[in-house]
Design goal:
Number of strands: 19
CATH class of the largest domain: Mainly Beta
CATH superfamily of the largest domain: L,D-transpeptidase catalytic domain-like
Distance between the termini: 36 Å
Strand order of the largest sheet: 5-6-7-14-12-11-8-15
CATH architecture of the largest domain: Beta Barrel
Shape: globular
Largest sheet: 8 strands, mixed, barrel
CATH topology of the largest domain: L,D-transpeptidase catalytic domain-like
Number of domains: 3
Strand content: 25-35%
Structural class: alpha+beta
């Protein structure tokens, strides 16, 4: 959610040192060098429902609409017809940073929900824009509100005045409320998860730091999340996984906050740390790094071409390795 979307309370100004510094932040090698072990999703076919458009379908499946259009040869104006059958590759690496709670990967624009060591599903998000990034760190759900009132922080009121807009101090529940019908506040100052009255903003970096979800998605998640639930926010534009079957996967997203990162060197370093250099088909890596399409590809030496290997179903809860 936007920092401005804090219901019922006013939050202090966030110390956005990354934005203020003006230089690309640098991540430590240990921050991004972990190797994951679970891959979910896979190749599937999806029939278009009445009223569904390319963007909503892509958000529901957790893929980029541009990739979905290209994969199915859908031309401008990108209209879908009910009954159309689209090919979708939803293969993704599960960032199991914790085994119970919520993991938000900012470059991926995704929230992963874990319960009792089992990965349940993922949800598409909107997060902070580059000039107002969502903070990373370990947090927890502190409060929950149905049909919240938006009490506009002073900083947002000042922004309204500077832009020549009407200055609003409070917005009651209803269609004009940016929080939508659900709010879950976190221990990160001014940052919460909430619905939105502009669902088309989901899938983009547009907020003032908060995390927006599609109304139907947060309606499903809200009753499952208790106060005190851990929330871990990470920044991982590149993910690698070594599955229990010995397959190696690589998944790449845009480095939206422009952290200092050499993707090729990163992959080489992670491979070296985990002794995987001789098990990777290095000819496939540059294409995946360049595409940044958010799909996890099998880069195991001797594997089939990227995208042809089917992983586990996204919709089926999977146990985290070692949780037996």
């Amino acid at each position: 959610m936007d920092r401005r979307l804090a219901p019922l309370v006013l939050f202090p100004t966030l110390l956005l040192t990354l934005a203020a510094a003006g230089a690309a932040p640098k991540a430590s090698s240990t921050e991004w060098s972990s190797l994951y072990h679970q891959v979910a999703g896979g190749e599937e076919q999806c029939q278009v429902s009445r009223g569904e458009n390319l963007t909503t379908l892509a958000l529901r499946k957790g893929v980029k609409w541009q990739w979905l259009a290209a994969r199915n040869d859908i031309k401008k104006p990108f209209r879908l017809k009910p009954g159309m059958v689209l090919k979708i590759n939803t293969t993704h690496i599960v960032p199991a940073e914790i085994d119970n709670g919520l993991v938000i990967n900012l470059p991926e624009l995704m929230l992963y929900y874990f319960r009792d060591g089992v990965y349940q599903r993922r949800y598409s998000l909107a997060v902070g824009k580059r000039t107002w990034p969502t903070p990373t760190g370990d947090y927890a759900i502190q409060n929950k509100t149905r049909n919240p009132t938006w009490v506009v922080p002073p900083s947002i009121q000042e922004e309204m005045a500077e832009q020549g807009r009407e200055v609003i101090e409070k917005v009651p529940p209803g269609p004009k409320n940016p929080l939508g019908a659900y709010w879950m506040g976190t221990s990160a100052p001014g940052v919460g998860l909430h619905a939105t009255n502009i669902p088309w903003s989901v899938g983009h970096f547009v907020s003032h730091g908060c995390v927006r979800m599609l109304p139907d998605d947060i309606a499903e998640l809200y009753p499952q999340v208790a106060i005190g639930t851990p929330v871990k926010i990470i920044y991982r534009p590149i993910k690698m996984a070594l599955t229990p079957q010995g397959r190696i996967y690589l998944e790449v997203h845009p480095n939206i906050y422009r952290h200092e990162l050499d993707p090729k060197s990163w992959v080489e370093e992670v491979a070296r740390l985990h002794r995987l250099q001789d098990r990777i088909d290095w000819d496939r890596v540059p294409t995946i790094l360049k595409a940044k399409d958010g799909i996890a590809y099998d880069v195991t030496r001797g594997a089939e071409a990227p995208g042809t290997r089917t992983a586990q179903s996204q919709g089926t809860p999977q146990k985290k390795p070692g949780s037996e």
